[in-house]
Amino acid sequence: MEPLVVLAHARRFPIGAEVVADGQVSFRVWAPAAKRVQVVLSDRDSSQHALEPEPNGYFSGVVRARAGDRYRFQLDESA
Predict the structure, then answer these.
(1) CA dihedral defined by 74, 75, 78, 79, rounded to 10 degrees?
(2) In sequence order, what are the residues at sequence separation of 6 or more whose Cβ sits closer than 8 angstroms to the Cβ of residue 22?
(3) Residue 25 burial (C-beta neighbours within 10 Å; 0-12, 13-18, 19+)
(4) pLDDT in tens, 33-43
(5) What's the CA gap between 22 and 28, in Å, rounded?
(6) CB under 8 Å to 17, separation ≥6 — which residues?
(7) Residue 32 and which of 9, 15, 52, 59 are 20 to 30 A apart at CA?
(8) How far apart are CA 74 and CA 79, in angstroms?
(9) How confident is the model at residue 6 (pLDDT cuts 50, 70, 90)?
(10) pTM for this structure?
């Protein structure tokens, strides 16, 4: 699992995936019942990237990815 790269940026949308720099995508999801959330990049190697918890049930992080990459959120180690 690759470490997250942290960038200071303003999001256009409250949730989802947004390209923030060349080769970096910001992910954010609202999952108030989850204890842990990861982004799984499906197109490449199914790599998993842990998101950091925020107040009010949100999780977010910046991951090396490209526009058009397929991804899914994995909650609490579910399959």
Answers:
(1) -20
(2) none
(3) buried
(4) 999 999 999 87
(5) 18
(6) 25, 26, 27, 65, 71
(7) 9
(8) 7
(9) very low
(10) 0.80
